[in-house]
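Lab notes, practical 5.
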Amino acid sequence: MGVSSTVSVLDSLDFTSTLARHMADDTLWAYLALAVTTAPPLVPNAALLVTGGVLAARGRLDIVFVLLVVAGSALAGDLLIHRAGRALSGPVLGRVYRGGRRRQLFDWAADRIQRYGVPFVAGCRFLPSGRLVGGLAAGVVGYPARRYLVGASIAEAIWAAYSVGIGYLGGRATANSLYALGLGLGVSAAVATVGGLVQAVARRKARTAARTPSRTVTRSAAGVPAPGAVGAPEAGPAWPVADRAGQTGP
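Output from the prediction step:
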């Protein structure tokens, strides 16, 4: 089979061509679809984002407006997640603490948000489920909304640039949208894989450190091991939890 025949077959199997034509025919619907599928977490819309970039490369959408819609809607979703974590800290903790793995992940995120602040808020966006877990953890521990906004803005600007940009560059490099889509999805998968590996290594180090026995046991005035010390009964979270008024408590 020659090159031209192969390209023809790939064109016939390009499942984004119909979506691309529909988005190009109705630009308002295209921007709305990008916003609606980007704002909530855990919605797999990588193909749609890449398609938006491809259409922008072909002049059917405005690349600047596509980036603003994608980054803006994602940031709005981040702020809602943070607000939900702060307002619903009790139910969130109750659900998280029913699962051992969820609890470890949540505690890990909450601890690092308080340690590293804005850099971790930005970096957490690129970890598996990091957008949801990081946003809820930041709200539960009472991390300031303005600082969270700074970190989330940096993260979403970078995320939108590469998610849409790879489709845009692919659309400029080739007329076949299937190639551009494959490139975009490949880069997205690579980023997710690297983020998952980083998260796994960091959590393993944290578990190892937690299992390392301490040589001393901190005791209260009554002689009972203090909460969090070796030999003490397990208490609640080791970090402050925000109350409904936006303050933090023990």
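Observations recorded by the TA: Residues 13-242 form one domain. The CA atoms of residues 45 and 184 lie 11 Å apart.
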